Amino acid sequence: MTVLLSESKARCLENRKLLARSRLLIARSRRLLSPSFEISGSSDENLRRTIRTRLATGSLFPVDGKVFAGKGTGKLCSICGMPIPQGDIEHEVVGPTTVFAHWDCYSIWRQESDELARTPQQSRQHSVKTPTPLHIEREDGAGINPPTTEYAVSFGGSTDRVGTVLLGRPQGLDALVLLLRGLGMAHGEIVTACQALTEQPHYVIPDVSLTPAVLRRFRL
Ligand SMILES: [Zn+2]
Asked: Cα of 79 to ligand 1 centre, how many Å?
């Protein structure tokens, strides 16, 4: 029995080492993918940051204490994506869906969920959304027909237009409306923009909040 126990302890250690190594590899590949990613910082910090981002963008639900702890059965952890080995404690978390998490992963998830609950809605939206000006332009001239001409939609930068990113070149006002809807803009704002663009070649919406989901869709 003692032999078995120490053997499983050793395996558990081995698994933990493997887990730590995978986390390190995941963190490293994330850094490679994102040059702005902080070079320093442990894999736990990276995991925490990922959890925080996922909670903020809504791709992970906050935990509110509905959890069952049991023996690991090899299920995949929803936080780090690694299997939860038999020697580990598996947390079964009940939310909009039922997911599983490692002890360590769950504890960070719980901490970040508590932190999120403490953050007032106002500042949370600030950190999630990026207010930026949106520019809509078209060619100007006698032969230009505003309902059918090509528009250029770009966002970012300031008044000097440095750092703007082209989001698309919709052909005609209908296509422009579709693009603006895709950006999550309100109906009223779109109508105002279209009206303005039938009379002028350049229209700026000074403060557009693009959600992380929208930014991802446009690969920004
Ligand atoms: Zn995990």
From this structure: 5
CA–centroid distance, 4 to ligand 1, in Å, is: 25
Q: Ligand 1 centroid to 199 CA: how many Å?
A: 56
What pLDDT, in 10s, does the model give residues 106-126?
999 999 999 888 876 655 555
Structural domain for 58, as ranges: 2-121
How much is the pLDDT for 39? 42
134 and 207: one domain? yes
Which of 90, 121, 152 is the last residue in one of the domains? 121
pLDDT over 80 at 182, yes or no:
yes
Contact 129, 199 (CB under 8 A): no
Q: Please give the distance, rounded to the nearest whole angstrom, from the Cα atom of residue 78 to the centre of ligand 1.
A: 7
Q: Indicate whether 62 and 153 sit together in one domain.
A: no
Mean pLDDT of the 48-69 span: 89
Kindly state whether residues 200 and 143 are assigned to the same domain: yes
Task: Tell whether 22 and 66 lie within a shared domain.
Answer: yes
ipTM over 0.95: yes
Structure confidence at residue 38 (pLDDT):
41
- The span from the CA of 14 to the CA of 11, in Å, is 5
Q: Can you tell me the distance from the alpha carbon of 13 to that of 20, in angstroms, rounded to the nearest whole number?
A: 10
Domain end marker among 121, 139, 171:
121
Angle in degrees, CA 45, 48, 53, rounded to 5: 130
For the chain, what is the radius of gyration of the CA atoms?
Answer: 24
Domains identified in the chain, total number: 2
